[in-house]
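Researcher: Let's do a round of design. I'm pasting the structure tokens now; please hold your answer until I've finished.
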């Protein structure tokens, strides 16, 4: 769809955190890059907001970007808000009756409410060209994800459904495609013959930051590994693509996820979980997770998760992919690291041995580094590692701007297809079951530390 076609963006849950912190700034960053884009933002939520209060919220979010005056004025003139109980069928119908197509309905709602609203939408006349944008978590396990997909398919066709994973909107993740497929030097070595192991790590120094309501019901595995990190794995490991069409990328990503299984087939052996205890990060004193406001310790929610998987295909069989993410860690680290195998023969006579070559992709801020071994300066009989690093310019848009652009244009390139969403749960369901049954111990780590000892090989920590 051409970018100058006017589109209505109906945000359900417009009074919530996602809308305020991510969606409105995202749309603002899109307007900054494409000032002539025509989008009418309609907010709906049960929160009682006047038109002026809503406009002020939009204006404040735009100011964080900041959006230039002309597109900001134009968007603010058109935006409106409708107080709606979305679980009330009459109010929902009245809301939709006031929206014309092309229409994007963005579900910025708690997942359980989104499912109920979708059921009610079966009885509503949706405008022509209605697209649905859904947030993670998409379902709670493989079975519920399948049921949700079936419900959505009663409303619109699959190519009108956008399961949002804003990691795919990060230019650094998308850059993996250019890096992998535009470099002759990487093509022959991107496989199990040359790559020994891969780590996909998203360690944060942020603790709970007041988000117990969401996080305590989710935990690190659902919040990060089951969604974002498996999507990154999909792009890292997929077969080559003929072009950048949504179908090509979706097909290849889905194929990789279908082939992905827990390492050794056992949740007990391939997964680890832990929770932070009291500690300090910089000057911040962090209470134990179980003492954070709103946390129910009996839920046994993990704040650090690590799972090893294998992509069982010809290219990757035998290569462990370690996915790991956690909160309140001392050294934030958001990287994909490919560790290469040692050379078949190192000439005799060197005083030391070579550490493996590494390719490190920093997800934020974006950078690509090759860590290579060469003769040490001034001591040619020694080997030492040197890093060649290329910083990537920050993306033109916030990740949510990238994602929203695709949704508004009706392009599924960055969204998660139904089969891929189900595969991600199929991979992680056994881990969740094993954890629930207590078959994997809950370890602890002090906030501000590097996490429990021994989870990653000693050479995996990169300064
Ligand atoms: P919030 O709880 O902050 O916002 C949800 C909004 O929906 C609230 O304003 C809530 O009103 C409203 N709402 C709930 N039920 C109804 C109803 N029946 N009718 C009308 N409005 C209703 O959640 P978030 O914004 O944090 O999250 C929304 C979605 O985005 C979730 O799926 C989450 O997993 C996902 N997400 C969130 C991220 C974030 O950083 N916030 C990041 C990535 C994904 P009330 O307050 O009265 O309940």
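Researcher: That's everything. Go ahead.
Model: Designed sequence:
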């Amino acid at each position: 769809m051409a970018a100058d076609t006017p589109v209505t963006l109906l945000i359900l849950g417009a009074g919530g955190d996602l809308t305020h912190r991510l969606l409105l700034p995202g749309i603002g960053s899109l307007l900054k890059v494409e000032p002539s884009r025509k989008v009418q933002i309609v907010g709906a939520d049960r929160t009682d907001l006047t038109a002026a209060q809503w406009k002020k919220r939009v204006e404040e979010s735009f100011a964080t970007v900041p959006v230039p005056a002309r597109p900001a004025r134009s968007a603010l003139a058109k935006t409106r808000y409708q107080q709606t109980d979305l679980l009330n069928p009459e109010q929902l119908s009245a809301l939709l009756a006031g929206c014309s197509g092309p229409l994007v309905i963005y579900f910025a709602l708690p997942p359980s409410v989104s499912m109920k609203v979708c059921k009610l939408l079966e009885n509503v006349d949706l405008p022509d060209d209605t697209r649905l944008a859904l947030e993670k978590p998409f379902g709670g396990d493989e079975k519920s994800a399948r049921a949700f997909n079936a419900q959505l398919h009663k409303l619109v066709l699959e190519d009108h459904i956008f399961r949002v994973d804003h990691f795919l909107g990060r230019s650094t993740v998308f850059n993996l495609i250019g890096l992998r497929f535009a470099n002759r030097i990487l093509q022959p070595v991107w496989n199990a013959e040359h790559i020994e192991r891969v780590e996909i790590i998203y360690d944060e120094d942020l603790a709970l930051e007041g988000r117990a309501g969401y996080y305590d019901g989710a935990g690190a595995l659902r919040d990060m590994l089951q969604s974002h990190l498996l999507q990154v794995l999909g792009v890292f490991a997929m077969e080559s693509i003929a072009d950048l069409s949504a179908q090509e990328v979706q097909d290849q990503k889905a194929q990789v996820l279908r082939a992905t299984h827990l390492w050794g087939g056992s949740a007990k052996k391939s997964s680890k979980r832990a929770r932070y205890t009291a500690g300090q990060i910089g000057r911040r004193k962090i209470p134990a997770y179980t003492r954070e406001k709103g946390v129910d310790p009996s839920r046994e929610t993990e704040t650090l998760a690590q799972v090893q998987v294998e992509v069982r295909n010809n290219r990757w069989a035998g290569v462990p992919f370690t996915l790991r993410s956690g909160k309140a860690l001392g050294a934030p680290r958001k990287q994909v690291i490919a560790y290469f195998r040692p050379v078949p023969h190192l000439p005799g006579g060197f005083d030391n041995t070579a550490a493996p070559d590494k390719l490190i992709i920093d997800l934020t801020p974006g950078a690509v580094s090759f860590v290579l071994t060469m003769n040490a300066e001034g001591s040619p009989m020694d080997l030492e590692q040197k890093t060649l690093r290329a910083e990537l310019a920050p993306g033109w848009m916030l990740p949510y701007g990238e994602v929203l652009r695709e949704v508004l244009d009706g392009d599924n390139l960055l969204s998660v297809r139904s089969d891929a969403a189900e595969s991600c749960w199929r991979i992680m369901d056994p881990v969740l079951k094993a954890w629930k049954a207590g078959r994997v111990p809950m370890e602890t780590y002090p906030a501000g530390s590097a996490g429990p000892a021994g989870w990653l090989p000693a050479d995996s920590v990169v300064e």
